[in-house]
Design goal:
The protein has helices at residues 4-31, 34-62, 69-101, 108-133, 137-145, 150-167, 173-202. The relative contact order is 0.15. It contains 7 helices and no strands. It is an all-alpha fold. It has one domain (4-202): Methane Monooxygenase Hydroxylase, Chain G, domain 1 (Up-down Bundle).
Length: 204
């Protein structure tokens, strides 16, 4: 039976992989590079394997005498949220691959807006990974100290400006749908990242 310290190290590896996947997906998006995206999909399979193994190990530990039920539950929640982040990254990749195949173009304004949203969310996930890797809750608190709905407000703002571009004929409807999907999926990654930060902050 593994101990919680060893499992926390494995969970940090899972967070590191999720962060790498997010960065590489953005890189593939910016470069229109399907090979980069294919590599991320392979990483997503690894992430799923890690989730299954860690969940099984946490369940095993929970059955032991004097098991730290609260920390086990918090760590289980973190693992589940990391796996969910991988699912949303996979959804993003599916849309980006369509964008590449159909040669759909975003306007410069749309690209700038998405880059801004992405940078906000990447920073959150970086802090969560640091909180796990360095065992420092201050990084988790930094994720939580901002406005709770900041990312949602950004998405709403960018949805409205993109609709205006659509009406003005600046972008194509098909490309518009891809853009809105990317906004929504990235926002969901932020929601799960904040959930991870909250669980880290409660760990003993």
């Amino acid at each position: 039976m593994e101990n919680l310290t060893a499992l926390r190290e494995e969970i940090n590896k899972m967070a590191t992989l999720a962060l790498s996947m997010l960065k590489n997906t953005f890189d593939g998006f910016m470069k229109h590079d399907s090979d980069i995206l294919a590599g991320v999909l392979k990483d997503e399979e690894r992430l799923n394997d890690m989730e299954r193994n860690l969940t099984a190990s946490l369940v095993d530990i929970s059955k032991g005498k004097g098991a730290d039920k609260k920390n086990i539950m918090l760590l289980s929640n973190i693992v589940e949220d990391l796996e969910e982040i991988g699912d949303y990254i996979k959804d993003m990749i599916e849309r980006i691959e369509i964008k590449i195949e159909e040669k759909l173009l975003f306007s410069d304004d749309a690209v700038d807006e998405y880059k801004h949203l992405y940078n906000v969310v990447e920073t959150e996930l970086v802090d969560v990974q640091k909180a796990l890797g360095m065992n420092d809750k201050n990084f988790a608190r930094r994720v939580l100290c901002g406005e709770e709905d900041h990312v949602d407000n950004l998405v709403q703002k960018y949805r409205e400006t993109h609709t205006q571009r659509l009406v003005a004929g600046i972008c194509e409807p098909r490309a518009c749908n891809m853009f809105l999907n990317l906004l929504d999926f990235t926002a969901q990654i932020s929601h799960h990242t904040k959930a991870i930060a909250k669980n880290i902050a409660e760990l003993k």
